# Entry
Amino acid sequence: MIRPSRTVRVLAAVAASGALLTTAACSGDGGDGETRSAEVTASPKESRAAAPAARQTTTPAGGLTEEGARAALITEADIEDDWTQVDDAEKWRDSLLIGDVDVDDFITAETDAADCQRLLDGLYSEELLGKPSGASALTGFTQGDSRLLYQVSAYDRAELDDSMNWLESLPEKCDQFTAGASGGEERTVQVVEYQLPDEGDERQGLEVTVQGTVDGSPATLTLDIGVVRVGSDAITVTAGGLNGGEKDSVEAAVQQGTERLKDVLAGRTPPASPTS
# Structure
């Protein structure tokens, strides 16, 4: 439960490393075109893939393979609109997500504050569900100043169940809280639940807004999040930007993406275009 607003005690800011980019969309070819919005820090990860594989993909009894994870990634056709696939999504980091949660906002500070901190850190690091235990692939798309990040990963089943339960608890535990950033800036974060299409074995939709400043001007980052579990594998979609969220695109991504993942797990090659 959230207490009424209190004076923020800003904690030590999280240090961001690497080169600074901007939150707005990259140029259409995924290159180094000039962008604008909130700053992001480039921090490449290993073993991240881009486009889905075109050849026949089979999945052994042991679970999702790296090749299978790549084949399960969505394409531009799956989300329609004007999304353009890029080749540097693994470098995206949004500096508005960097901050230390103010424990004074919580009655049960040690638990709820830690859960809200985990949310910010997970969104920033692109590991919202924790570190995958097996195969993992990632791709990204831009549309105007918005971004859509799509991941397919294999997890330890017990840990994945815990993560899904944690996500479900966030709208209540973290409905509104304050995070302190460098320079004494105070950011207001809100978490709201929304319904995803009935896909997979389990699913969770969240909208996260972060009110802060960019280049000295007020700014609000809105991220729509969709997570779908299929057995011990999961799809994670995060989309939005400073111009608002992208619920329709998240919903399309989880609908088409869940079918692609099911095809891969069944040893079939996902279709090149959406089936519905």
Residues 1-61 have pLDDT under 50 and may be disordered. Residues 193 and 206 are 5 Å apart (CA to CA).
